Amino acid sequence: MPALIIRRIIQSVLVMLTVAVVAFTLFRYVGDPVSQMVGQETTIAEREQLREDLGLNDPIIVQFVRFALNTVQGKFGISFRLGRPVNELFAERLPATLELSLVAALFSLVVGIPMGVYTGLYPDRVLSKVFQTISLIGISLPTFLIGILLILFFGVLLSWLPTFGRGDVIQLGWWSTGLLTASGLKAVVMPAFTLGMFQLTLIMRLVRSEMMEVLRTDYIKFARARGLTNRTVHFGHALKNTLVPVITITGLQLGSIIAFAIITETVFQWPGMGLLFLQSIQFADVPVMSTYLILIAFFFVVINLIVDILYHVVDPRLRFDKSVVLGH
Amino acid sequence: MKSVLRIQDTVYRFFDSDIWYSFKKSKVTIAAACVTVIMILSAFTAPWIAPHNTFDPATLDLMDAFTPPVWYEDGTPKFLLGTDDQGRDIFSTILYGSRISLFVAFASMLLAMILGVTLGLVSGYLGGAIESIIMRIADVQISFPAILIVLLISGLARSVLPNVRHEEMAVWVLIFAIGISNWVHFARTVRGSTMVEKNMEYVQSARVIGRRRATIMFRHILPNVMGPVLVIGTIGLAVAVLTEATISFLGVGVPPTEPSLGTLIRIGQSFLFAGEWWIVIFPGVALVILVLAVNLLGDWMRDALNPKLR
Fold first, then answer.
1. All domains of chain B, ordered by start, with CATH?
2. Where are the alpha helices (DSSP H) in A74-181?
3. A201 and chain B: CB distance < 8 Å anywhere?
């Protein structure tokens, strides 16, 4: 197990290094940093001086190491478009995206697992058919269209829910939360539903097929033969064993939730990192782009690592070395 | 004469095959195939069948702007599904829009297919360091969502290309980006099948008679691994249509001068609050029907071509 973790960590570091090289290449070679920073009337000598001051004449390796060190310390440079330090911008936007993603993930778990269990236990009931249809719609409708339909019905026609923004936020230290105010809670409903819909479908289908698989196994039959109640068999024995793949998928999906938040944030004008990233693409704001890239890659790598380790903690079958089990 | 007989034979064999039988048996698949063919045909013949040419400003009249669909009191049969803010007929913009959407999707899928199949064949057949490098890149790429990769490439293109060039290059940038984001599935599948095929006798005999490696890969192995490639290609087409629509909806894809379905939805979104729902809903419906039909076709193909499931 430790060997595996070390191997996974080395792999993760390699991925991060690759991403850092891409981000650095972006940062350094796409567009001239100097001409982005100075005005028209700056002389060539002044430009050369600035170039020297910024260290742009140093060997590439030195520049890359400096970039990497700065990145690790959270110094990401200054946004071309907004003229403010990039780390400030991201610190402002991070809570919005994380709150939205967590609410969406929670929603998809809390609704998706029971729906999956129900359709797995009673595949022929009418309600199961309804759930199946919902999941088919969830997979075929593109995210942004779900958002637009929600806005049309609940925002424009019924005017129950706000159609854009986060509502009122409360400042807790550097973290701004919208989950403690009524308007903030109202504002999060539609974006979280939109973002969570696809994951919900995924989780429901997964739990359903796993449940149906597990219910056929011998230990379930034995549990029933022992006279245990349906409730114990279904939830104590069957559901527990379906949770391993659910944990993996949910964990891995957390990264894509954060990435797909770009779309949801655009539809609902949610002031998060995704919206910031999208605007940076439209305005070719390279520092923001490369920072987003690094941050997202970091999220992905860390989540993958945690999921891998959790996997081994949850499933005892994976914990034993094969040689030990076989008695070599 | 001989060739006519051969064609007849092929046609006869096709109608006698399991695939045609399973196609005939599934009503959903027939419906999906019909819808797909109709949508593709009407998209590519848009200049001839569309009631209005939406690219010709001379035919537009601002007085027609925001006409509702025909079943409303203010609607006219001239504009079946209503008009947008510039008085463009929604039905015609959908036809022209799906033309651009499908063009981008087909082209990018083709790029992904060529790239993925080639890399998959090479890494499966040659093995060794080349294989490790290609497959590690594939592993890393697949752990990031495709949409992020597409966004990043179009962002890069925006910063490298000057603004003027960017408008006209946008479609090609998008095709390139979506193609790059999709090659991994092809490569993985083809690599797997190639590794099985390369130990078969026909490959060994081809090697013994001294055929070149490239010939063996592309003339001998390739035809035998194409089945799954077609399935992935069909589902990949649906994914490409969706990706294009999403990117254009986000405003970094096809420019508004040549609107695709996604761009139309983006434009229409701003009129939602005024109650002009038809500008956004109809392109959305067209998009969903197209994606759903292609997806159903792909599902059927996967079942029909996979003997293990039968």
1. 18-309 (1.10.3720.10)
2. 86-121, 126-140, 143-150
3. no
